[in-house]
Recover the amino acids of this structure.
């Protein structure tokens, strides 16, 4: 399985931004604190879409932007990443609370936040070559809004992976985990997909 290569970034809305960056090889999945915390880095999305690259619906009707689903339900989504495009099914299968110890390697930079894990299943519906692409969701609080904490990367119990080489035929699936977090005492109660035309302003939301 190929690991996603986005940096690990933590920022709290009420405090100064804190930056942690991933180190190691593409398949290593390790991360360590960055030496320079004055530069803010955000993950570059590989899901670049445009009106000229709309995927042909396959595997059922496309899920409309703004749709609200229950955790475990499947959303059918047009998808484009670089020069690859098709239709995928995205299912948020679970929202799990992680242990604070999972962020111990980052020391004081992770104080005051608790990790949560969005377990995601992705299916290739169009049968087009979508190998090595990646899908990401964002955690939401019980009020349906962002938690005020931005975090990305891996922990020992949450391995963020991209699609394998074999993700190029209809029916192929893979599973990944999206790391999210909330201030201590609060929780992540929902997840949203907000990538691509239509979904940026009106995400698909899975609620517990």
């Amino acid at each position: 399985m190929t690991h996603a290569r986005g940096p690990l970034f933590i920022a709290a809305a009420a405090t100064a931004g804190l930056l942690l960056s991933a180190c190691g090889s593409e398949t290593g999945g390790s991360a360590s604190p960055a030496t320079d915390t004055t530069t803010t880095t955000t993950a570059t999305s590989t899901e670049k879409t445009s009106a000229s690259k709309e995927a042909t619906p396959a595997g059922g009707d496309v899920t409309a932007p703004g749709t609200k689903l229950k955790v475990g339900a499947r959303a059918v989504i047009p998808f484009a990443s670089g020069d690859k495009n098709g239709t995928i099914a995205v299912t948020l299968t679970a929202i799990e609370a992680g242990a604070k110890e999972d962020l111990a390697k980052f020391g004081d930079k992770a104080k005051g936040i608790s990790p949560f894990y969005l377990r995601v299943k992705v299916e290739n519906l169009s049968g087009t070559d979508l190998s090595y692409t990646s899908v990401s969701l964002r955690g939401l609080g019980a009020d349906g809004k962002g938690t005020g904490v931005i975090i990305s990367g891996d922990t020992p119990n949450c391995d963020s992976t991209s699609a394998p080489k074999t993700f190029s035929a209809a029916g192929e699936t893979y599973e990944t985990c999206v790391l999210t977090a909330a201030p201590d005492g609060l929780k992540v109660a929902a997840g949203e997909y907000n990538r691509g035309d239509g979904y940026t302003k009106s995400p698909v939301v899975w609620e517990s």
